[in-house]
């Protein structure tokens, strides 16, 4: 068994889009209904994907992570499908982070969260997909109420980081959360 790979992932987005909820759903398997504003928070989780263990550090930020940016391996950029403002903010964040890392592409998953709130939706899936395509990033919609979509988000960013390392998958990878 190869050594676990340590991977640091930044979860970024406008306030109240569900960064904490998605991360907690992935790490602890539960949905927290209360809103507890976070400025910065860190979680750790071991995940196994296709025979490789990943020791994930998940850093959630509501402000831009100026000083920590250099050692981040992948970005989960979150907006809420119910908030136009959050969709605008995620574009600003993406521009800023490319400027900061000085690359034209970094492993990124764009996530449209709160997809369960059908009546309040203002951003269509196609709009999110189009934006992610323009970045060369992956796109997903999620609901932090469903464990499966939260797991998919983090499975996807692992895949994007592996691709950036030249480890493109030959087939659909299996992911199991430990
Ligand atoms: N219906 C629904 N509510 C959600 C979802 N994700 C988060 N929420 C709710 O939205 C509110 C904000 O969620 P948080 O996870 O605290 O959002 P955040 O992005 O971490 O917020 P900040 O800490 O301010 O940056 C909470 O009341 C959550 O319960 C979702 O997918 N669906």
Protein model, in words:
With 178 residues, the protein is α/β, with parallel strands linked by helices. It has one domain: Rossmann fold, CATH 3.40.50.300. The protein is built from four helices and seven strands; from the N terminus they run βαβββαβαβαβ. It has a seven-stranded mixed beta sheet, with helices on both faces. Strand 5, helix 3 and strand 6 form a beta-alpha-beta unit. The two termini are 16 Å apart. The model has no long low-confidence stretch (mean pLDDT 89). The protein binds guanosine-5'-triphosphate. Guanosine-5'-triphosphate binds next to helix 1. It holds the Pfam family Ras. One of its GO terms (biological process) is signal transduction. It is found in: Cell membrane; Endoplasmic reticulum membrane; Golgi apparatus membrane; Lysosome membrane. Its main location: membrane.
């Amino acid at each position: 068994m190869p050594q676990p790979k340590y991977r640091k992932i930044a979860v970024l987005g406008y306030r109240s889009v569900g960064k904490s909820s998605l991360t907690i759903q992935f790490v602890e398997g539960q949905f927290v209904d209360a809103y507890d504003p976070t400025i910065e928070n860190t979680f750790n989780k071991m995940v196994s994907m296709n025979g490789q263990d990943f020791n994930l550090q998940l850093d959630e930020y509501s402000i831009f992570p100026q000083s920590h940016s250099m050692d981040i391996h992948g970005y989960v950029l979150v907006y809420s499908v119910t908030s136009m403002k959050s969709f605008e903010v995620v574009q600003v964040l993406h521009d800023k982070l490319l400027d900061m890392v000085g690359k034209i592409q970094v492993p990124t998953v764009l996530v449209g969260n709160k997809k369960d709130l059908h009546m309040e939706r203002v951003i269509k899936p196609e709009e999110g997909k189009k934006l992610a395509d323009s970045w060369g990033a992956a796109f997903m919609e999620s609901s932090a109420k469903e464990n499966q979509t939260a797991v998919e988000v983090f499975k996807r960013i692992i895949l994007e980081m592996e691709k950036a390392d030249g480890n493109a998958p030959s087939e659909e990878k299996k992911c199991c959360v430990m």
